[in-house]
Design brief:
The protein is of the alpha+beta class and 115 residues long. It has helices spanning 12-21, 28-33, 41-51, and strands spanning 5-11, 23-24, 36-37, 58-64, 72-76, 82-86, 90-91, 95-100. 23% of the residues lie in helices and 31% in strands. A 3-stranded antiparallel beta sheet has the order 1-4-8. β5 and β6 (82-86) form a beta hairpin.
């Protein structure tokens, strides 16, 4: 069974675009690759460590994959894992929660909490 939620790492500027426009077309890497990169909870810390090392203005958005329907494709990527890829814009109404990126004592990225 596939996860029904995934996570998108956003810079502060990208989050501002999502909030202002009600949708996010993707980061430079997303636009280059042709889809919005998402990660499962289990993949999130490794994604941040690999692709966002040293960046400070980051946020984590929890995404309801069911709300995105067939625009989500699970595709093999890093380490042979299947990652959720969104073929289309990320709409604000598919975001369940978001928060500034923070880490637990063990270094794992803390997931946002919906209030």
């Amino acid at each position: 069974m596939r996860d029904v939620i995934a996570f998108k790492v956003l810079t502060a500027a990208e989050l501002a675009t999502l909030e202002r426009d009600g949708r996010f077309a993707g980061s430079a890497a997303d636009l280059r690759d042709g889809y919005v990169h998402l990660s499962t909870a289990a993949q999130l810390t490794a994604t941040v460590d690999k692709h966002y090392a040293g960046q400070t203005d980051l946020h984590v958005a929890e995404v309801d994959l069911d709300a995105l329907g067939e625009a989500i494709r699970w595709e093999r990527a890093r380490g042979g894992d299947d990652f959720p890829h969104l073929y289309g814009d990320l709409p604000l109404d598919a975001i369940v929660a978001y928060s500034p990126l923070a880490r637990d004592d063990d270094g794992a990225v803390r997931l946002p909490v919906a209030g």
